[in-house]
Amino acid sequence: AQNTPLLFASANGVAGNTAGRANLGLVGTVQYAFAGGPAPVAVGLPVGVNLVGSSMLTKELTIDFTHGSAFLDMELRFRYQLAGASTTTAQVLTLTGSLSSTGAGIQNSGDFSGSPGVSCAGTCGAGSYTSTVQMGVGGPKGYDIAAVAGHVAASGGTFNASFLGLHGAQAPTSANQLAQ
């Protein structure tokens, strides 16, 4: 076993370690709860529009280590104020979709990645939104913590936001859980 501490361990390799990556022997499904993180950051706002607050909430994060997949349902909330206005407007971006195992461990971008669909409510503007999400797991048991980082962009470059959230593992949801 390697004695070097790792920030992120790879969840890939559950069926066999073929590329020298960490094989944690993880099987089963784990649900995670949002623990916190910095407020999402939005850039590229039109002149005269000020960001006055933002927050992030993960409604669901589940990793299926057996099949090398994850499901994410997350909200990013932004409050804006027009220069000289006394009221604020809100924008809620909901990211929902699957992430796939990258098998890259710490050598690359993380354990899971994907482009969940993005829907917008509130002050959304014209155009569509896209997302890129990366997730890595780690901790004393190898899966205790999931760090989720990503980026959301509006078509035409009118809106860009970045986010980072930490999540803690809940009780395993499978009967034959996470053998190590």
Put the structure in a nutshell.
With 180 residues, this protein is mainly beta. It is built from no helices and 10 strands. The N terminus and C terminus are likely disordered.
Helix and strand topology:
Blueprint: E1 29-36, E2 41-43, E3 49-64, E4 69-82, E5 89-101, E6 112-114, E7 117-122, E8 129-138, E9 145-154, E10 160-169
Antiparallel strand pairs: 1-3, 1-10, 2-10, 3-4, 4-5, 5-6, 5-7, 6-8, 8-9, 9-10
Structure description:
- The chain is mostly beta strands and 180 residues long.
- It has strands at residues 29-36, 41-43, 49-64, 69-82, 89-101, 112-114, 117-122, 129-138, 145-154, 160-169.
- It has an eight-stranded antiparallel beta barrel with strand order 1-3-4-5-6-8-9-10.
- β8 (129-138) and β9 form a beta hairpin.
- It is elongated, with a radius of gyration of 18 Å.
- Residues 1-23, 105-110 and 174-180 have low confidence and may be disordered.
Features:
elongated; mainly beta; 52% strand; 10 strands; disordered C terminus; disordered N terminus; 8-stranded antiparallel beta barrel; 180 residues; single chain
Strand content: over 45%
H/E element string? Answer: EEEEEEEEEE
Q: List low-confidence stretches.
A: 1-23, 105-110, 174-180
The total count of helices amounts to 0
Over all CA atoms, what is the radius of gyration?
18 Å
Question: Numbering strands along the chain, what is their spatial order in the largest sheet?
Answer: 1-3-4-5-6-8-9-10
Distance between the termini: 13 Å
Report the sheet with the most strands, covering strand number, pairing sense and barrel closure: 8 strands, antiparallel, barrel
Helix content: under 10%
**Average predicted local confidence, pLDDT:** 78
Question: Care to count the β-strands?
Answer: 10
Shape descriptor: elongated
- Give the structural class: mainly beta
